[in-house]
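Got a spare moment? Tell me how you read both lines of this record:
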Amino acid sequence: MNRVYIKTYGCQMNERDSEAVASMLREKGYTILDREEEADVILLNTCSVRDQAEQKAIGKMGYLAKRKRENPNLIIGFMGCMAQNRGATLLDQLPDVDLIVGTQRYHHVPEYLEKLQSQRDEGIPKPSSIVDLEEEEGSQNEIKEHLEGSRKVSAFVSIMQGCNMACRFCIVPKTRGSERSRPIPQIVREVEELAARGTREVTLLGQIVTSYGQGVIPRKDGKGAFVQLLEEIEQIEGIDRIRFTSPHPRGFRQDLADAFRRLNKLCECVHLPLQSGSNRILKAMNRPYSREKYLDIVASLRRSVPDMYFSTDIIVGFPGETEEDFQETCDLFQEVSYDMAYIFKYSPRSGTPAAEMEGDLPDEVKEERNQRLLQLLHENSLRRNQSLVGSVQEVLVEGPSRKGDALMGRTRGNRVVHFPGQDRLIGTLLPVRVDRATVSALYGEPVISESAVAPEEVLSSTSAR
């Protein structure tokens, strides 16, 4: 009775949390499955950012509850942001759930599963559900374990938890708590261990990753804590690329803009959440910047790296958004020319100030604006990808393509590339000449012949900008 399946909803932070829980469970003797059919324990790691994500998780758990009635020994549980947000009220709707664990208590999952199993072994027909939503000092330091076994070319590294912002649409401060940062030496050790196991790229994670160490780690030589951390990771042998997400525009001070020019391993690809291009809506959202300030940040980053790639988050249909407000978002979207964007139709989240605001828009208006912005994104992405046809791109080879008939990897600008090659190239940095482009991917041929070059001789250092 020790086979566990974990299904993850939501962001990269949730993916990282799920992996850490899986690693903790494996250390306790549990087997982690890729499929749920044979699992004795099924855990859903949930998201609360959008209502749709919550409804998917609740629907899935309803299905699992039916299975549990047929197999009472099956253990089912919620983890993550929805668990934190809704807590024990989930049991009113889904009384068969055994376990509800919040975002600061992931590391207690193994002991809770042992307790539930012990109750079953003792013949208790309906063990009491376990609900743990407590805050815990130092909990940010517990998300550090990675699953051993298969080589991970690219890995997520959680450097902080929580958010001190007060955006009126966002539930994250409630579900993740206040900002809490890990010590630099601890993060460096984790990355060094990953590098020793073959990881070539790390993505640093935090709810507001650029707030790392604020108020805890003092500035040094004019550099904030986040830039100091980037400099430390830059020195780790075996790591060739560094990325980070999700930042906040207020975190892009000059020291970070300069870091993109100075640090060779820091990829020239920035996720810079916008949310709206209208100053009126930004103020209503309680976002602490204007469209003018946002464009200044974009300009400073492009001064450091003229060919910078940009992605963003945008909410359409925020309460009170007029057609003029939306057009300002479209205009800014075109001015920045985003390469990628996550575009969301506003949905009220209970417990947030925006949920009480007047002026919620009809669904058809939100959908129409969503489609218009998606069309602009389609045009931008296709234009950028087509501009790369004929160029040679440095590609970190991640593994086989989904269809299995080629390899795939990513450029420093985070563009997906498909190309022919053998598995021995996985984990190398390979120059690929792009000969075709679509909206979502690039296609090409390796410049260096595999038959003539051993994997260790393939391009393995970051290219000069």
User: Anything to note?
Assistant: The first helix runs from residue 12 to 27. Residues 257 and 301 are 5 Å apart (CA to CA). The two ends are 53 Å apart (CA to CA). The chain has 13 helices and 19 strands.
